[in-house]
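Appendix B. Extra example for self-study. Work through it before the problem class; the solution is given directly after the inputs so you can check yourself.
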Amino acid sequence: MKKSIAALLLALPVLSAEPVVESSQPEVAAHEQVEQATADVPAETGHGSDEFKISDVIVHHLADAPLWHLEVNGLDMSITKRVVMMWVGSLILILLLVPTARKIAKNPYQAPSRFGAFIESLVSFVRNNIAHDSMGHHSHPYEPLLLTFFFFILILNLLGLIPPLGEIYQMAGEALGWLHHEGDHHDSLQLPLAVKLWPGITATGDISVTATLAGITFLTILIAGFAHQGILFIRNVVPGGIHWLLFPLMWVIEIAGLLTKPFALAIRLLANMTAGHLIILALLGFIFQFQSWGIVPLSIMGSVAIFLLELFVAFLQAYIFTFLTALFIGSVQHRH
Amino acid sequence: MTSIASGIAALGIAIGAGLAVLGAGVGIARIGGSAVEGISRQPEAANKIQVAMIIGAALIEGVGLFALVIAYLLQNKV
Amino acid sequence: MPLLAAGSFNLLAVNPGLVIWTAVTFIVVLVVLWLFAWKPIISAIDARNERVENDLKESRELREKAENLLREYEQKMESARAEALQLLDEGKKDAEVQKAKIIAAAKEEAERLLSRAQADIEQAKVKAISELEQSTVETTVQILSRILQRDINDEDHKKIVLQELGAIRKSNIQGS
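Solution. Structure tokens for the complete assembly:
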């Protein structure tokens, strides 16, 4: 039951993204439906002529697009889909965690509520199994950062799995006739407000976002290195017991290694969060590519399976990013 | 570039990406297999083995992704 | 056509605006959660852990104390039992001695009583016999004097009768 709903939810944005399919089908009923939403007809017929292309769907679902244009000092600071999604995730995180924390802090000796216990177990997991395991008793100052990394990435990964609610709402409203939208569906700046408020994109599936997070990790590694080893950190990057002639070479290699770590972090998160979506879109895209009912069960079942895998990956990648960050910080706290 | 040359280049990129994924897959499979073996031998050390397994798999995955990124970057040059 | 580079979509193109927005958002979230979520939760968990640890320590100490007490009590019990056994033994011995004493005393008493009774009986028998003899003598004298119609000297009579009785007794004793 739940699976079928999930599959339906997954299928909806693809359907909504492809007015092409509807208008290119020869059935009269489909045309009548399109005709009913009179405002949409010109926009749709503009795209209706070309055939279904999976790359268009992928671009629509995975590519960032500006929703509100903003330019500061000549720098493009547009509020894009991912920015909105990030804000939605941050808001959800703050609205969930702050009251829970207040409730827990009020009665620390009382058994917390079910949600409180869940949050507490996650916090304890990050503190004990991630921070403390890789840093020992030096972990204390880094715990809030690691916790924020974990929850921020986790919520963005999970929200990315929810289809664009705004788009579904708008589509349902237009189909039922109680919402009208003037303008071009394919110009992201002119999308209706509901669509803009929940663009349903994976914020962590973008190199800009993951690179920024990895950059924060890199800065933290540097700060931790200098804080625990002082200025000697520059020399201690190289492990002890190396012949002095090899030292310059090793130093360059180790510095490169230091830079590779956050790079790998960024690429790993990006690739993992993109790959699953890509597979789901491709599987559902088969339906429209082959224009056949026979492929439907296979597509839906496959995408549901991948979706469940993605749920796991969402947690796993949040864990791995946080864990590796903790590990890297732990590795610069002492000379090796 | 002639179309044959670009085709061969694309083929090279695809084979390279495939080999990278193959290598990463073999590596992760070995880690997973050894971890399961270790856990079945010493179930009480399951937690430590799992952590070590995840670290190893993540590092291998990083290398594989690195290769994929390079393949992806080369793809635009074809 | 490259799959992921379709249209304007480039997987590895960094958008500086997005970088800045990510950094700003993350730092805001970090600060807000640090102050209003992680701090209270961590301090609450730590307080609880500390309390649990203290409780554990306390209970461990209490248990140790209780175990010591138990051991002490067991030792006391053991010694008390030994003492009680000893007392019982002693009591038994005492009772035995007492019993023997009482029995001996009783036996003695009984024997004494028996011998006295025998003596009494003997005495009574002797007395009765002498009395009987006396009365027999007197009666015989009376009868004889009646028969003989004359008074004989009492003394003579008695002598004669006693002589006769002595003969009779002798024969009686011999006969019995």
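Self-check: The helical segments of chain B are 3-41, 46-75. If your reasoning did not lead you there, revisit section 3.
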